Amino acid sequence: MQEETINSVLSNEDSLTVLPTGGGKSLCFQLPALLKEGMAVVISLLISLMKDQVDNLRDMGISACCLNSSMPPEEQRSAIEQIYNGEIKLLYISSERLQNDAILELLFYIELFSFLYSQEHH
Q1: Which residue, among 23, 74, 21, 26, has the nearest Cα to 6 in the 3D structure?
Q2: Model confidence, pTM
Q3: Which end of the chain has fewer beta carbons closer than 10 Å to its terminal beta carbon, N or C?
Q4: Same domain (yes/no): 109, 61
């Protein structure tokens, strides 16, 4: 199922994949994120899992960060600055952050920037 999901994402097709714990869901979005241009946004319900994923990616030299309510304001500002500067490949965000207008504006900006960037270079 991982291969089918990865191919679907790489082909810009919608995909819904349900796998059990330990079934390799992370690979289904991390690999395409690394192969495609731009930043992938991962919405996670578990802050501890989000932190583990970001720590593991950083250990491998992959630029990743998270935004959640448990982070001090200075860490959040630093993460947002990195996102605006195009320095982040994978952004993990908690679902409650999607109710924050500033975060929604950030995600809109990134989407718009990605669209403009791809239009200028293709």
Answers
A1: 26
A2: 0.85
A3: C
A4: yes
